[in-house]
Design a protein that fits this description.
nuclease; 2 domains; 25% strand; three-stranded antiparallel β-sheet; Nucleotidyltransferase, domain 5; alpha/beta; RNase_H1_N; Ribonuclease HI, Chain A; RNase_H; 6 helices
């Protein structure tokens, strides 16, 4: 399945063809009875826009904010996490496909100023490294995170008050269209959330046994 480059909104706050997901999302998120669909080519988008079909093949109902990411076509689910110990922070992330880890990475952060945010610095680093990897691969990802600020800073629901979070927001907004967020509960038995938690800890030599 190819990457969606065009989005048609037939029912939303604003209708028409959008060439990026953030604009489409702004039109349909929270809109009761929203009808939209993504396409790889503009020709396909125009054909569906002009057709009588109103309801997408894979959608029947209203999108809720916490379910919106599930409607997207993504190439990989990516779990991210961070850790901290003795003045150092670390990150870990894993690309998941069909329930299997296909790529993983971890490391230790080197920004002394960022380290003041302890494990949150690692959470941010994990997401940024994952997005950079997605950009290199030219894929779209769904980012699973257990710290609320990861998505709320980007959405503007939380104010980015320091240089680290402000730089993070700038970076993520520059890469909109490559990712969507999905919040998960930390230490709740989620297989892959626990997996990347171990990755982050292992980068610092923290025992996970």
């Amino acid at each position: 399945m190819g990457k969606k480059k065009y989005y048609v909104v037939k029912a939303g706050a604003k209708v028409g063809i959008f060439n990026n997901w953030p604009e489409c999302q702004a039109s349909v998120k929270g809109y009761k009875g929203a009808v939209f669909k993504g396409f790889e080519t503009k020709i396909e988008a125009l054909e569906w826009q002009n057709s009588k079909e109103r309801v997408p093949e894979d959608f029947n109902g209203n999108y809720k904010a916490d379910e919106l990411a599930e409607s997207l076509n993504v190439d990989f689910d990516v779990y991210t996490d961070g850790s901290y110990q003795n003045g150092k922070y670390s990150y870990g992330y894993a690309f998941i496909k069909d329930g299997q880890v296909v790529f993983e990475s971890n490391g230790v952060g080197e920004d002394l100023e960022a380290a003041k945010m302890r494990n949150v610095a690692g959470e941010i680093a994990a997401v940024q490294h994952a997005v950079e990897r997605a950009k290199t691969l030219d894929v779209r990802i769904r980012i699973y995170h257990d710290y609320s600020g990861i998505s709320l800073w980007v959405s503007g629901d939380w104010q980015a008050k320091n240089k680290l979070t402000q730089a993070y927001v700038t970076f993520m907004r520059e890469h909109q269209g490559l990712y969507e967020f999905k919040k998960v509960a930390g230490h709740s038995g989620d297989q892959f959330n626990d997996y990347v938690d171990r990755l982050a800890k292992e980068a610092l030599g923290i025992s996970t046994k």
